[in-house]
Specification:
This protein has 419 residues and is mostly helical. The protein has helices at residues 2-23, 29-34, 41-52, 55-69, 74-103, 108-115, 119-152, 156-204, 208-216, 240-252, 258-266, 270-295, 319-322, 326-329, 387-393; strands at 340-341, 404-405.
Length: 419
């Protein structure tokens, strides 16, 4: 936990430091809003990618569409990369840069107002942007705060407030350039993070093939392929037509988002646009493709923790549990020879590597196995787990140290009972 806190402090500290650094270069309105129209291809491409594939995609869309379409949801990520990134850069990048510079437009409403010489259009564009960016921003903070709540055990409301405050600080300090640099840092974290998370999730399921096998055993609950086995692990999924609609909507919708198109206003030249096109596309393939691929295994984590009181799936709750394996969240107690532990009913427990015990058991009506360390037999099958049943039986108030019996070790001696 100490390491997590240190990493959190370093991350937030770097955000503020970037704001202070960028403040020196923001000497006028153009510098503050557009980075002086001199932002390079790497910063622009990463800023485009992190704005596109924010927590909304990682927590919300990946969980929702991964659960609905299984592994075929990966097509959404690839569509986002080819249509939402590559095609957007090719069609909009150069043209938007040239026109916005020619008109001296700094924002999308400003562009519309000057391009069509209409104050009414400028006001309408401003109102639309303001109104619809509120729920978008809320969803971003919702996703980020849920992740931080899970990782650092910080109340959700506190996460939202702190995130919003930090964002305000570095944006006010350094403007667009501070945002672009911080997006670049976050983009690097996202690239390595999504690869690491996918590897961890697959390892937790016994490997890629074992995860596919488990997914193929889940019958489809989608009307088009209802009851069909293997639909969620198939190439086009349980509902190809609706999947195609999601690919188009999530890929073309970004073309009109002000925070996306704005990146083309600030890029420095046409050469940077060409380079940025390649970088942005590769970034999208890895991050977006990885997010939806990860979400495709969401049904393997179907338990009460992802459902509300009525039993309906809460899609924002699918991805967070995938980031923690059971051993990561249990209390760990360092043991030494002679230690004694009393394990009352309802206490989840396991032995660590290399530990030998003498176990005295009371008779028990039933035992639930909640984790088996990814062990499989010669045919690649794991033992049956009873995770859903165990959720109701576990006493969550117990910790390892509470079960540790404190006693004074006394050397074995003869005891005289009678004369």
């Amino acid at each position: 936990m100490i390491i997590k806190i240190i990493m959190l402090i370093l991350f937030f500290g770097s955000m503020i430091a970037v704001g202070l650094y960028s403040r020196k270069h923001a000497t006028n309105v153009d510098d503050f809003v557009l980075g002086g129209r001199g932002v390079g291809p790497w910063l622009t491409a990463f800023a485009y990618g992190t704005s596109y594939f924010s927590a909304v995609v990682f927590v919300g869309y990946a969980g929702q569409f991964g659960y609905k379409y299984g592994l075929s949801a990966t097509w959404i990520g690839l569509g986002n990369a080819l249509i939402g990134s590559l095609l957007a850069w090719v069609i909009l990048g150069r043209r938007t840069r040239i026109m916005s510079k020619h008109l001296k437009a700094k924002t999308m409403p400003d562009y519309f107002g000057k391009r069509y010489d209409s104050k009414a259009l400028r006001l309408a564009a401003s109102a639309i942007s303001f109104i619809f960016l509120i729920p978008y921003t809320a969803s971003v903070y919702n996703g980020l705060s849920r992740l931080f709540e899970m990782a650092f055990d910080i109340p959700y409301a506190v996460c939202v407030i702190v995130m919003a405050a930090l964002t305000c600080v570095y944006v006010i300090l350094g403007g667009y350039m501070a945002t672009a640099i911080n997006d670049f840092i976050q983009g690097i974290i996202m690239l390595f993070g999504i690869v690491a998370v996918i590897m961890a999730v697959l390892e937790g399921q016994g490997g890629f093939l074992q995860a596919i096998f488990k997914l193929s055993e889940i019958p489809s609950d989608v009307p088009v392929t209802y009851g069909q086995m293997g639909a969620f692990s198939s190439f086009f999924g349980p509902d190809p037509l609706n999947l195609l609609g999601v690919v188009i909507l999530t890929s073309l919708g970004t073309w009109g988002l002000p925070q996306m198109v704005h990146k083309f206003y600030a890029i420095k030249d046409e050469k940077a646009v060409k380079t940025g096109t390649i970088i942005s596309t590769v970034f999208a393939v890895i991050v977006s493709g990885g997010c939806y691929f990860l979400g495709g295994f969401g049904r393997l984590y179907d338990a009460e923790v992802i459902r509300n009181a009525e039993g309906a799936v809460v899609y924002d709750s699918i991805i967070p549990p995938m980031l923690n394996t059971l051993p990561d969240i249990l209390n760990k107690v360092e043991v030494k020879p002679g230690d004694v532990f009393f394990i009352p009913a309802g206490t989840i427990h396991a032995l660590g590597k290399g530990i030998k015990v003498i176990e005295i058991q009371q008779t028990s009506d039933i035992t639930y196995r909640v984790y088996d360390w990814n062990r499989v037999d010669s045919e690649g099958r794991g033992r049956e787990l009873h995770t859903a049943l165990a959720v109701d039986a576990i006493d969550y108030s117990k910790s390892g140290e509470e079960c540790h019996i404190k006693y004074e070790l006394v050397k074995n001696e003869a005891v005289k009972l009678i004369d």
